[in-house]
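Schema walkthrough. Field components (list of strings):
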Amino acid sequence: MTHDGKQVRLGVDIGGTFTDVAMEIGPELFSTKVLTDYSALEQAILDGVTRVAGKAGIGLGRIDLIIHGTTLATNALIERRGAKTAFLTTRGFRDVIEMRAENRFEQYDLNIVLPAPLVARNNRFDVAGRIGASGRELQPLDEAKVAEFARNVSAAGYESIAIGFIHSYVNPAHEQRAREIVEREAPDLSVSISSEVSPQMREFERFNTVCSNAFIRPLMEGYLSRLVDRLKDIGADCPVFMIHSGGGLISVETAAAFPVRLLESGPAGGAIYAADVAARHGLNRILSYDMGGTTAKICLVEDFTPRTARTFEVARTYRFKKGSGMPISIPVIEMVEIGAGGGSLAHVDGMRQIRVGPESAGSEPGPACYQRGGERPAVTDSDLVLGKLDPMNFAGGEIKLSAEKSAVALIDHVGRGLNWDAENAAVGVAEVVDENMAAAARVHAVENGKELSEFTMIAFGGAAPLHANRLCEKLGIDALLVPPGAGVGSAIGFLRAPFGYEAVRGAYMKLSQYDAARVNSVLQGLEEESVSVARAGVPEGALEIERKAYMRYVGQGWEIPIILPGSALKPEDRVHMRGLFEQEYERLFGSPLTGLDIEVMNWSVKAVSKLFPVERAARVLVDGSAPINATRKIFDARVSGFVEAGIVNRCDMTPGTTVSGPAAIVEAETTTIVTAAFAATMQSDGCLLVRKKEVVQ
Amino acid sequence: MSTDFADVHFQIMWNRLISVVEEQALTLVRTAFSTSVREAGDLSAGVFDREGRMLAQAVTGTPGHVNAMAVAVRNFIQVLGEDNIFEGDVYFTNDPWKGTGHLLDFTFVTPVFRKGELVGFFACTAHVVDVGGRGFGPDASEVYEEGIFIPITKFATRGEVDQSLINIIRHNVREADQVIGDLHSLSACNYIGHLRLMDMMDEFSIDRLDALRDFIFENSRRATLSRLSALPAGSYFNEMDVDGYDIPIRMQVRLDVSPDGVHADFEGTSGQSALGINVPLIYTIAYCGYGLKCALAPEIPNNHASLEPFTVAAPVGCILNAQHPAPVAVRHVLGHFIPDAVLGAVSQFLPDVAPAEGASALWNIQVSVRPIPGAKAAAGERLQSAEILMFNSGGSGARPTLDGLNATAFPSGVHAMSVEATEQVGPITVWRKEFREGSGGAGRLRGGLGQVVEIGANEGHEFHIKAMFDRVRNPARGRQGGRPGAAGVVRLDDETPMQPKGRQKVPAGRRLVLELPGGGGFGNPSERDPQAVERDIELGYLSAEQAAGEHGK
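Field assembly_structure (string):
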């Protein structure tokens, strides 16, 4: 193990198109991208690992640690490829996951189609037995009926069982008993219970989460055990850990039992990557901006920690619209994802408004400029016509781009409807997609009570550096960092992730009925759970513990997470908790309200290993200009016209060298556009720092 | 290039205006106390020009306020007087005839000044927790019994909130702290809109909204009229009977379709009711406009110009143009039926667009639960009184190419609350909330299923309900040969029938059972795809026997 006394760590991210592998040996980084092979996912990993080890010149046996994230779980839910699953629930509540919130996610469309439930009605079964809101048993569980259910589903060939009973987050006794019975009667079936997978209040979210877990569990169990075995076969006999939705690491065993925790782990890695860059540069307020081929992801990172939420939605079926997907109630890095990527297609609607995305040209046929048969204009076509891309030097020169094809597509699908030429159409498409992303960032900031002008942007993903500077202009952000290796950002991010786990539980309490002993018991249970998961990765050393209460005024519908003090709560802490809540309420909404009781709906505890101390990259002073190879005309939105921009190779820039916008800084995977109002300075760690000209000294 | 590029700027600004009002609405959803605002989005937020014409409206919210608020802002300007509008002012009202139809809704209007000049207004509307009077139910015989009535007046003058007015409200409502909280949150949400608009005007270096307004109006008008000019001109009629409170109500509508607009006239509709199911015209306009827009121009954003071609008239004193002092507290029940009535007329010229009738009116239920005198709570629990509001939706009508939606609200935009959260609010247990099998109207396309809800009080408690249920005597009709959905049923678990409207007691130890109506079917049932019938049987949406009877297979 190890190489020259240095730890060898490997990050592997399976994405929709590429599998990214990043190997870190001390300060050195090696990376590669291989095409994802959907028929044998682990093969891409083995290929990538072998290739990158070859680059680094080390044997596979030297790898100390592999950290893996994958879209497999997310894709299985989106494509509904999972096990034949039966759901057992409380009598009278068979249709919870199909009734959803009883609303339409789009008001004016008479022909909306609601997403089908993950487990169809004929695979959902109910049983008598009821726990009340206080946790008291109102009606005993019909155990004979549970046994009959188990025998029936086993005989009918079901592979996985989900159990979700009303109020099980308060009292899991019925769910636990039902699992015992099923395991006794049908020992071959995999059983997931909602009080373990997601012990949060609100039956639709919790039931859907346990069904999702059961649905993907056999698939993920199989995949993970094959992967570990085959890695061993090729000599990589090291521990493998998984990155989870909350951006921490969990063991393969935990991941196999709770695969729902792997949802969106790739994007989570991206946020961790941004957090690490932020720590290196000492930036406390970061807007992480990741733009790939299909979507853009935006996330707030404060004090080097991405924000987390208790619930999120996957598999949206209607233009990424809120409410059109499936709710999953597990801790997750909070981000907004919108259908805005390099491949997002543009058209003009009935209002003569330009619309961009969420439909994407993908890699086949790709944007029109790829000359692979795509006839509709994508964001990349607009970028090309506006001079942001060099047609001869895209993807390191591997794909030759045709500006003529872009112009034709832009005129056919955008310009003609508006009587515009190709350049105007391209300007329109660029401004609309940039505005869509800016709007998503603004809403995300407002929802969290933040002022974006105080933030620094960190941009990564193939398309982000082309649009990041304009986005900064729109958001009033003065500084932007484009790190090196942005193309495999998520895989690098995995290597920066802490071992950690967040446990959440619903336990209702009004502050007027505050009971310190009860709160401490809930928090202690959560702490034990999260610490035990974290300890699987870090057997010793300090863990950081963060405890939160999700609170609101009695009668409101929106809970605010409040960070609680680290020590056990005392009887007199009621006033303190009220104070913490009111302080946060005031920050978000202006002023606290008088005379109202406050209630706590959910509690959470996160245990996280202390991060490696990061090496701070001191900000370098401007030291000369970078060599300009050539110039070309690039559109600048602020100037409202084409400007003569300098073209610079990123590899020609040494720390301190500066490029004054308008400019394009070119590297193999991407190009960073610097607008006329900004200038870029190379930093000692390879990051490009793009700042408003007046602040560059 | 410059003029074209200005167009791009206007498009961006238009989109930005819509996100400004979305932000305004979101602030309200997150800070409101009223269940119907926070869970159901029963609210509206918008930005207006100097003359009170709506430029943009949040899509968050229920259609009940669509264009009701649009009209309301002009009422404010007229009542207050143009020379009585100052920077820092905030205005409000809950006048049902000048606002949005009942006293429980407050509308707030805030003028926007830039560099000392009036550039426009922000407005928002939301349902508050309580306004005093009899509470949220249909039993009043005059609006005076329904609570405090605040005419259009100043909530704040040049930045100073009128504390004596707040004090009067505080002493006239239940849950005063929450109601005052709601009022402040309405005022704050306009302020948030104002801040974001100023940011936008700074960014685009504009000091007035006039050019942007012209761009929005011109595009919206042109797009709307191009839709309307494609329709076959003429007059189309429809009538529909619903339960009403004590006597059945006939809703009758004539649509006059021309290339310049669609005019709806409710001539022939029943007269005012003695009880609180009456609808002020402003609310009729709102739901009528919504129904027409869904069918005729769904993707055009709501604003003054896109709504202008849709006009509405109803005879003075009919139940859809009820006059002061008629009681109007539960005006939503008939309001929710207006789109069904209008779509019935639309189906005559666009047979492939209009869905069949649905359950349509929400089955909202207000539960007042009280300790039984002398009784004890279960171990570990305590006796308590509570008011609980639940939203439940029946089935929507089958569409020309799709089945109806099971237990899904239409036309209202509400969300249902979690049963687990509801049971935390007060001592009741919901024993059942699931699809009502067999309730969808048969057809080539099936109507959506209703649902069954069963509610009991916890140990030591009993409860009253305020019922406001419809389609018990008049089920949702099918279209083009489709069969009606099942009618609603209100009963106890021992089969004792209950009244569909009004305050009633559920005796201790008994459970209330609501069987919600299903949606109507579309097209001849014998033409239904046999595989779809089979799938319905497999899923238990209906029994094999019922299917054999309805589809002849």
